[in-house]
Amino acid sequence: MNTPVQYIGRKPTYTDLLYGTGLTFVPNQVRPLPERLAAKFLRHSDLFREEPQDDEQQDEQAQKPEQSDTPPKLEDDTAALLAAAQKQQDEQAQKDLERAGLMDQVRTMTKPELQTLAMDRWNQVLAKNLTLESTRERVLQFVDQYGAA
User: Fold this and answer.
1) Whole-number CA gyration radius for the chain
2) Where are the extended beta strands (E) located within the chain?
3) pTM of the predicted model, to two decimals?
4) pLDDT tens per residue, range 93-121
5) What is the pLDDT of residues 131-145, one digit of tens each?
6) CB 114 within 8 Å of CB 139
7) CB 21 within 8 A of CB 85
8) What residues contact residue 18 under an 8 Å CB cut-off, 6+ apart?
9) Residue 23, burial from CB neighbour count under 10 angstroms (0-12, 13-18, 19+)
């Protein structure tokens, strides 16, 4: 179930960076958000409010007929933007998981295995006179610098 959330902030546009959705709002724009996400946005009462439902909206308009505070008619791309943000979060989680797996693997490898890994994966030659711990540390630095790929 979606909850309609209206942007009531002062700025001409608002882009969500806090909850990772990437949604952009313009003044008085209403977006239907999943209940859990809507609850997070509605915590910020200076920026968002819940859009009244049909019966409440009609009562409100009857009480204030001269007020032109109607939300602008914009194409609703909320679902597509939320799906894209979720996909990006999933991809990042997968990269983090691969990185953690590689780092665990590096912590159990022997010195020759570490040297081979550095050469095969990042085309880096490690000095043969380094200790096992120094070699391991260098390979972990390569993981941080170049990533798990």
Assistant:
1) 26
2) 2-7, 14-15, 24-25, 30-34, 48-50
3) 0.57
4) 999 999 999 999 999 999 999 999 999 99
5) 999 999 999 999 999
6) yes
7) yes
8) none
9) buried
Amino acid at 58: Q
Q: How many CB atoms lie within 10 A of CB 7?
A: 21
Angle at Cα 146 formed by Cα 116 and Cα 106, nearest 5°?
Answer: 45
Structure tokens belonging to residue 143:
């993981």
74-104 in b/e form (b: 16+ CB < 10 A) is eeeebeebbeebeeeeeeeeeeeeeeeebee
Closest CA to 146 of 129, 123, 130: 123
Distance CA 40, CA 32 (A): 13
Residue 15, pLDDT score: 93
Condensed to tens digits (0 to 9), the pLDDT of residues 28-55 reads 999 999 999 999 999 999 999 998 766 5
pLDDT of 66 = 45
